[in-house]
Design brief:
The protein is 46% helix and 10% strand. The strands form 2 sheets. The chain has a 6-stranded mixed sheet with strand order 5-4-3-6-7-8, sandwiched between helices. Helix 11 runs parallel beside helix 12. Strand 3, helix 9 and strand 4 form a beta-alpha-beta unit. It contains 14 helices and 8 strands. It starts with 9 loop residues before the first helix and ends in an 8-residue tail after the last helix. By secondary structure, the protein is an alpha/beta fold.
Length: 398
């Protein structure tokens, strides 16, 4: 009889149940946060005590289980950058990266730590993510010179990670769309699109030979050095669009690296800024933005339209929550005019992993009526959206 097959004795079963019971109490204690109301009687020690202290410093002041009045802040983090930096180091030690990023965002929101991000020792301790980049960009103008290089390093780390994740698939998907959009009726053998060729010649099916006679060949156009399409990314840089600005800068840089696409990046609030000349470095693009302020979509679209030279070969992507502070009716008329010119117009309420934010539903409905439906788009879906727009076929979200 092996050790595995040996029957469990009553004493061993009792000990196992006791261990399981202690683990349940431990978990409940870590969730409830201690205080007189938690009812577990469990006293954390060692690693558990350190994790509990890190959680208490951030969440202990909410009044939940901590015995404090609701809304009273914990003094655990205070206003000291070194103390916050130590806390950031602790949570990176005890929690996985995804949890660390959530706790960092909560610390910035709940405890008002934005200003501490202007200090180099604080920035060196944080776990970089898209949301942190958005916060840094909103502090850009207030950032001292001693912090700026550290901030750029943090932003560059996030941007490079996004490029590794998104660039290859974007180039492959968009290149395929460009090739398909440049079909030829006299393709070389290696350029024949067999699927479309067979469908185009089904009427020539010969049952006795069980074959299709391809009277008309359909092929992919050969790649060319000449610009075949123009893409204009028009990005709302109001505070709620921070993550979208980050992703748009990365995609803008990727598209700009493709010879067959002429890419323009325009950001706007109540003013319009053309950042096309910075597209070789998305970090420069991001530090050229200024998150916050009002919104004048109509003015931004007017600028974009003035830069379009080949409407039938142009895709305009408006990334905005559609809360218009400019001339509301003129914005819709501007989109209608571009559509009438032959421009393919795409409206993204957000370009992020968070889904659709609050947005102006009346404007979204008006754009949908023009054939430019508004929807939120994840970064992973964006290459497919661009491919569909370049080929002038239905977008994958609709």
């Amino acid at each position: 009889m092996t050790e595995r097959d040996r029957p469990t004795t009553a004493g061993e079963a009792t000990a196992t149940d006791a261990v399981a019971g202690d683990e349940r109490l431990r978990r409940w204690r870590m969730v409830l946060g201690g205080g007189e109301a938690d009812g577990t009687g469990y006293a954390p020690a060692g690693r558990d005590a350190a994790m509990d202290a890190a959680l208490e410093a951030l969440y202990g002041g909410s009044g939940a289980g901590g015995g404090r009045p609701a809304g009273e802040r914990s003094a655990g983090l205070g206003g000291s950058a070194p103390q916050v930096a130590r806390w950031l180091g602790d949570i990176r030690t005890y929690f996985p990266t995804t949890v660390v990023q959530v706790m960092q965002r909560d610390a910035i929101d709940r405890l008002g730590l934005s200003t501490l991000l202007l200090e180099p020792e604080m920035l060196e301790a944080v776990e970089p993510d898209v949301h942190l980049v958005g916060t840094l960009l909103s502090l850009n103008k207030a950032m001292p010179d001693t912090t700026r290089e550290t901030a750029r390093a943090v932003v560059r780390k996030v941007v490079e990670e996004l490029e590794r994740r998104l660039a290859s698939r974007t180039r492959a998907t968009v290149t395929g769309a460009l090739d398909r959009s440049a079909r030829t009726a006299r393709p070389r053998h290696r350029d024949i699109d067999w699927d479309r060729t067979i469908r185009a010649n089904l009427k020539n099916y010969l049952p006795e030979h069980r074959t299709v006679v391809p009277e008309r060949l359909v092929g992919h156009g050969r790649s060319a050095r000449a610009v075949r399409k123009e893409v204009v990314l028009c990005v709302d840089q109001s505070g709620s669009m921070a993550a979208s600005v980050v992703y748009a800068s990365v995609f803008g840089a990727v598209l700009a690296s493709m010879r067959s696409i002429a890419t323009r990046l325009v950001v706007f609030d109540t003013a319009v800024v053309d950042l096309t000349d910075r597209l070789d470095d998305p970090v420069d693009v991001l530090f050229g933005t200024q998150l916050g302020g009002g919104t004048d979509i109509n003015r931004a679209l007017a600028y974009c339209r003035s830069r379009i030279t080949r409407p039938a070969d142009t895709v305009v992507v408006l990334i905005s929550d559609l809360y218009e502070g400019g001339i509301r009716d003129e914005m819709i008329k501007r989109v209608a005019a571009m559509k009438a010119d032959g421009v393919e117009f795409v409206t993204l309420l957000a370009l992020s992993d968070e889904g659709a934010p609050a947005y102006d539903r009346e404007h979204a409905a008006a754009l949908a009526a023009l054939g430019a439906p508004a929807f939120a788009c994840t970064p992973d879906l964006f290459p497919d959206v661009m491919a569909a727009a370049l080929e002038k076929r239905p977008l994958p979200s609709t």
